[in-house]
Amino acid sequence: MSTIVLLTVTGLGLAALYFLVASGLSLVFGLADVLNFAHGLFLSVGAYATWWAADFMPVEAAVLVGVAAGVVTAVLVELVLIRPLYRRTIEQVLVTVGLSLAGVALLQSVFGADPRPFPRPGWAQGVVPVLGARIPADRFLLIGAAVLVFGALTAFLRYTRYGLIVRAGVENREMVTALGIDVRKAFTLVFAIGGAAAALAGSLAGIYFTTVSPGTGGSLLIFAFIVVVIGGMGSVPGSAVAAILVALLQQFVNYYGGSGAGDVCVVALLAVVLLWRPKGLARA
Fold first, then answer.
1. 94 — phi, psi (to 5°)?
2. What is the mean pLDDT of residues 133-159?
3. This prediction's pTM
4. H or E element: which one contains 211?
5. Which end of the chain is more exposed for a tag (fewer CB within 10 A), N or C?
6. How far is it, in rounded angstroms, from Cα 231 to Cα 226?
7. Burial class (CB in 10 A: 0-12, 13-18, 19+), 18
């Protein structure tokens, strides 16, 4: 019983990371039709900015620095590189893939290729007993952060004017444009939101894995793409459900079926969903 509890909570912690990366990715693709392979760079920038700032302030405050760095990076990428290429899909893919590779190379040249120990708050280093299982406290931090972000995104999309524009744009961008609304501002806004969520995921990934390295963003981005496809492009609730499914499947199959078997099952789940509901669980 304690093993199941530990796997479940740890899986939910991993799901929190997947959701934080996938939510912004999903909104960007749903609204702007941009398949942003550079999204993992926002995560890495946030993680390294937090790691650097933690030398001068408490880790909790350093996370805010990391989030700000992720937002600035995402907005600059949208304004300078993506905006001139809207409606030019192939060029977008080439630019974002190139940027992701260049970003990893830049981080390696500045910080080195080896993983570095990531600072963790003292209260997140303990364990919490739950039904006989000793759960690392940082898992609850990740889950709590993802729940807060999910609530904030849901409130933003439902109750604000720009949230309404984003929701309408995801469904029918041409209709929104025909109403005289400048969707370019919404594009920049969703990039900023995605950058903030990804940077927060980067900081929390450092706490979860206890290290930070230039490749962290790329490895999480692969599963974030799977989560977005399974959940449905442009759907925040769909991303949340898909993140939980993917992470729990990974955790349980890797434990009971052997290391690596969970990743194979996740790919199989992706194939089943694409055949059964091609637009994803939330958009079928």
1. -60, -45
2. 89
3. 0.88
4. strand 211-212
5. N
6. 8
7. buried
Q: If you search the block for the tokens 């609730």, which residue do you land on?
A: 237
Measured CA to CA, the distance from residue 188 to residue 54 in angstroms comes to: 29
Instruction: Answer whether 247's CB lies under 8 Å from 14's CB.
Output: yes
Query: What does the pLDDT read at residue 284?
Result: 47
Residues 27, 236 contacting (CB under 8 angstroms):
yes
Give per-residue burial for 97-117: e unless 16+ CB within 10 Å, then b.
Answer: eebbeebbeebeeebeeeeee
Over 12-71, what HEC string results?
HHHHHHHHHHHHHHHHHHHHHCCCCCCHHHHHHHHHHHHHHHCCCCCHHHHHHHHHHHHH
| pLDDT, tens digit, 9 for 90 and up, residues 105-135 | 898 888 888 888 988 887 777 888 888 878 8
**What pLDDT score does 283 carry?**
61
pLDDT score at 222 = 87
How high does pLDDT run on average in the chain? 86
- Cα–Cα distances in angstroms (integers) from residue 158 to residues 45, 155, 168, 238, in the given order: 30, 5, 11, 15
Whether the Cβ atoms of residue 195 and residue 74 lie closer than 8 Å to each other? yes
- Cα–Cα distances in Å, from 109 out to 12, 69, 73, 104? 34, 19, 18, 9
pLDDT tops 80 at residue 265: yes
